[in-house]
Please model this.
Amino acid sequence: MDNKKTEVKYVGADKLLFDSKNPRMVEFGDMSDETKVINTLWQNMAVNEIVMSILANGFFENEPMYAIDADGGKYTVIEGNRRLAAVKAILDPDIVANDGMKRYRDKITPAIKKQLSSELPVVVLESRESAWRLIGFKHVNGAVKWDSLAKAEYIAQVHNSYNVPLEDIATQIGDSNKTTIRLYQGLMVLRQAETETEFSSEDKYYSRLYFSHLYTAIGYEGYQNFLGLDLTQTSTSPVPQDHLKNLEQLMFWLYGSKQRDLRPIIKSQNPDLRNLNNVLLDSDSTSMLIATSDFRAAFENSQDGLDLFSKSIMDARVAIEKAQAKLSFYDGSEEIANSVLILANQADTLFSSIKAIRAQKLSSDQDKQARTID
Model:
C-alpha cells in the first residue's frame, strides 16, 4: 500500500458501517441489521473484552480500522468489526441485549463518548482487494485467528472475487497449500449442498455448524469416493450431479436437521469421522447405514471380523478390571452375584470354544508340516 492508502483519517462512529461480507460473520446468517450484528458479535466474539480495554485506555491510535467507501459519505469497516461493535455498545449501552453493558455503564464518561463519536482512526482503502493480504495474514495465521469457516470464506472471497490463485493465497497467509485448498474445497462442498440439495445450514440440529467436520472429512478416501470428489481439481461445484443425493445424506449425517428431527451421527471428529470413513469404504456397510441409520452397527459391519473380536475381548477385560477396582462397594446383593455367575459361565464357554478352535488349528498346522516333510 502507498502512503495515500495508509493515511489515517478520523471518523465518527455514526459514519461507520459493519461489513455484512466479513468472513467471520457468514455462519450467523443475514448480518444486514446493525443491532443483530452487535449482539451476535457480543455473544460469540468477546466484544466485552474490547469494551473494557477502551474504557480503561481509550481507542488505540496505533490500531486503526480499515474501511472502504459506502454510500452517503459513510464507510464499511472491513477490518475492525469487533472494535466497532464495542464502540457502538459504549455509545448506546441499551443496544446490547439482556443489559449486557450493565457492569460497564458507570465507567462510560463524557470524554470517552466524545472521542468515540468523532475521533476513530480509520484507513480508507480503495477496494476490498487492496486489503486481502493484510487481513489474511492477521486472521488466518496471525495473532487474532479466525475459525476454520471464516478462514475458508476469506480464501474463497479472495480466490473467486479477485482471481488470486490458491497457491498464492497460501503463501501470503503463511499456511500450507494443502490446507488452503482443502478449506476452499470444503466450503465449495458446503455451498453446493445448500444450493443443490435439501440441506440447509440454518436447519442444522445444533446451534453451530462445525465446518471443520466437513473440510477434515473430504481429506479421507471414503468421503471422496462417496461424493465423487477429485481433490486434484478446484471447482465451485466439486460434487458431480449424480452424487448430489450422497452429498445431501452426508450433510445430514454431519449436521442433522431440526425440521426432520435428525440428530447428526458425528458427535466428535475423533473417532466418529474416521469410523464413518471406514463405513463409506465398504458398500454393504454404507447401504446398511442409509437403510437403518444405525451408525454403530454399520461401523461394526465394516470392520474385519478378527479385529472386532479382539476389540470385544479387550473391552470386556477393561470392564472387568473396572468392576474389580470397585469391589469394595459390593453390598452382597444376590442380583449382582447372579450377574457375575452368568458372566463367569459365558467366559468359560468362550474359553472352551477358543481352546477347541486353537487345538484344531494346531492339528491342521502339524498335518501341513508333516506333508511338507514327506
